[in-house]
């Protein structure tokens, strides 16, 4: 008889993490099951732990099938897709992987901003398609000395601001509460958007921040403004954004996250003024190894009866 507790895995994880999980748990992979309903009917009642991605969390319909659940270990910092009230009510723990991915997400925010302003992706396509001998690209926009607005000044927002300081511009922010920082505070995303050239989204997703960036905010950002999102798709009204980039209401956008991932509205595909990446802000060898180590550390701590290193609940 195996003494390993049963763990439900909800999405592919990197091979070394899957191996570490298999050493400790009897792992059941829901994402590989042909019939999820039947799979949960067979294994659900034994499951004590869940390993999942930040972008997947724990769907309520799955959580409801796991009566013995003790801990949800998220391989990511965002816990917007896990119902924390339900976790408290049912008495299971939730852990995430903060801090270790902050630098990567901030780095990608800078990369996306430069990519959007300087048309990096379009330029690459131009060369590959053999267009260079036929003419130059239209001009891009300057990055240095711009006004940068950051929505959400938590760990990631601050790391973005720190990097932006090298560009000799001005930095403003909008956040839930005023912060002790040398950046200009704005009372709302709309006020920030009206002031800045580049609006970077780094806030946590929640019911309160859903569609925080809506039509009026994009209108305030204006025809020279660029939107960058490395947070969650739900923070932006994607229909309003598509309309804005299609009609020149804003200059462009660089998006790593979308409302209905991995589905990206087709309207975006043909637009030269948008840069689209597949939710890859934390996707480096180094950071994914650090995240994996934290997932394991939280699970180990729980099953050893110790305090979790990075608990959410
Ligand atoms: C990951 C994320 O892409 O940290 C988060 O909240 O969304 C990302 O780091 C995802 O969680 C990987 O599983």
TrEMBL record:
Ranges of residues in domain D-isomer specific 2-hydroxyacid dehydrogenase NAD-binding: 111-281
UniProt entry tagged with the keyword Ion transport: no
GO cellular component: cytosol
Alphabetized InterPro entries for the sequence: D-isomer_2-hydroxyacid_DH, D-isomer_2_OHA_DH_cat_dom, D-isomer_DH_NAD-bd, NAD(P)-bd_dom_sf
Domain D-isomer specific 2-hydroxyacid dehydrogenase catalytic: residue ranges: 61-312
Keyword NAD part of the UniProt annotation: yes
Single GO molecular function: glyoxylate reductase (NADPH) activity
Keywords, sorted A to Z: NAD, NADP, Oxidoreductase
Family: Belongs to the D-isomer specific 2-hydroxyacid dehydrogenase family.
Protein name per Swiss-Prot or TrEMBL: D-isomer specific 2-hydroxyacid dehydrogenase
Organism encoding this protein: Azorhizobium caulinodans (strain ATCC 43989 / DSM 5975 / JCM 20966 / LMG 6465 / NBRC 14845 / NCIMB 13405 / ORS 571)
């Amino acid at each position: 008889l195996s003494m390993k507790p049963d763990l439900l895995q909800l999405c592919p994880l990197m091979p070394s993490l899957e191996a570490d999980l298999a050493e400790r748990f009897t792992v059941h992979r829901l994402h590989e099951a042909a019939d999820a309903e039947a799979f949960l009917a067979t294994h659900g009642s034994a499951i004590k732990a869940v390993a999942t991605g930040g972008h997947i969390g724990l769907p309520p319909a799955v959580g409801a099938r796991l009566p013995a659940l003790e801990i949800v270990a998220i391989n990511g910092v965002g816990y917007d897709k896990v119902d924390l009230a339900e976790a408290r009510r049912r008495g299971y723990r939730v852990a995430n992987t903060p801090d270790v991915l902050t630098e990567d997400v901030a780095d990608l925010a800078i990369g996306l901003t430069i990519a959007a302003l300087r048309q990096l992706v379009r330029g690459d396509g131009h060369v590959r398609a053999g267009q260079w001998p036929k003419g130059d690209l239209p001009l891009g926009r300057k990055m240095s000395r711009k006004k940068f607005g950051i929505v959400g000044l938590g760990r990631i927002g601050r790391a973005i601001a720190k990097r932006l300081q090298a560009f000799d511009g001005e930095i403003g922010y909008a956040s839930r509460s005023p912060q002790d920082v040398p950046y200009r505070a704005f009372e709302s995303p709309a006020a920030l958007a009206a002031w800045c050239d580049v609006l970077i989204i780094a806030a946590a997703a929640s019911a309160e921040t859903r569609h925080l960036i809506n039509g009026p905010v994009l209108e305030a950002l204006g025809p020279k403004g660029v939107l960058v999102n490395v947070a969650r798709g739900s923070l932006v009204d994607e229909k309003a954004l598509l309309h804005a980039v299609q009609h020149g209401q804003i200059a462009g956008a660089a998006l790593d996250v979308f409302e209905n991932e991995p589905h990206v509205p087709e309207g975006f595909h043909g637009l030269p003024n948008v840069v689209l990446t597949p939710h890859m802000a934390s996707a480096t060898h180094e950071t994914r190894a650090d995240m994996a180590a934290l997932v394991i550390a939280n699970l180990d701590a729980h099953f050893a009866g110790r305090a979790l290193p990075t608990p959410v609940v």
